[in-house]
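REQUEST
  id: r-88c1
  op: predict_structure
  target: 3-dehydroquinate synthase
  payload:
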Amino acid sequence: MELITVDLDKRSYPVYIGAKLRDIGKIAKQFPIGEKLLIVSNKRIFSLYGEIVRDSLDKVGFKIYLTKVPEGERYKCLSWASRLYKECLEFKLERSSTIIALGGGVIGDLAGFVASTFLRGINFVIVPTTLLAQVDASVGGKVAVNLPQGKNLVGSFYQPKFVYVDLSVLKTLPPKEIRGGLAEVVKYGMIKNKRLFTYLEKNVERIRGLDEKVFHHMVRESIKIKAKVVEEDEREEGKRQILNFGHTIGHAIEAASEYRRYRHGEAVAIGMVAAGGIALKMNFFPRNSLIRLKNLLNRLSLPTTLKGIDKEKFWNALYLDKKIRG
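RESPONSE
  id: r-88c1
  status: 200
  body:
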């Protein structure tokens, strides 16, 4: 098991990589996270890992509660946040209590948003079960819900107590979920680490074969990159904006398709190519880099062109993006 610390002074926290879900209770006991823990997950994820996590936490003396959210980006909304608030009240959670997000980015965002606002903030722990959540969504403290007009328009910056990454869960993911996470890894290689990008180009077949060593390397390097950027700019006032490469267009694609046609990683892949094309025309992006980006995304079976989206909905969503300036 490796440990990477996200150094944010009093809000610093560890990310455990290569940990085992059956041992989470031993780790959790080391943190001041209260007695009552609410696990937020969905039906599919809980059926795979929920009992393992619950039993491990129960064995060391925590009082465990559970709630399940339907699967899908469209449930990351204020109405479902409201339902979770009611359950927090029913379970009599206190300021010392903790919400544990067991799932992918949607679960992490929704559970984190509720944790950041219930009783003006209670403890939060992330157990990411998708590649996308492990390399991106679980690190950095962004939590949010969507509005009908656009993605992540209501949210905050709220750091977890710790992040617990079990790489073995990736073996149970469908190929589409793996591809979505790979888009974020490609992003890190393109914006911050040429060696990582070259590593991906050289190891496409091993990636397709879910090689454990390759995935461990990808997850570790991605988390290191994200942690360093977040440490320099926690609230996205400058340097952290580089992590949004492909995301402004990507989020508009998701919103315009009502979160049905394209998953987040697929939309980001299209967004990176589009942003790269715009930057090329402005002489900000080398032509060879754009060619390599498109080739790698294609080899990883990720889309690079947009199809089947209403243009008016796309432009409306783009103008409502929270990152727009001017």
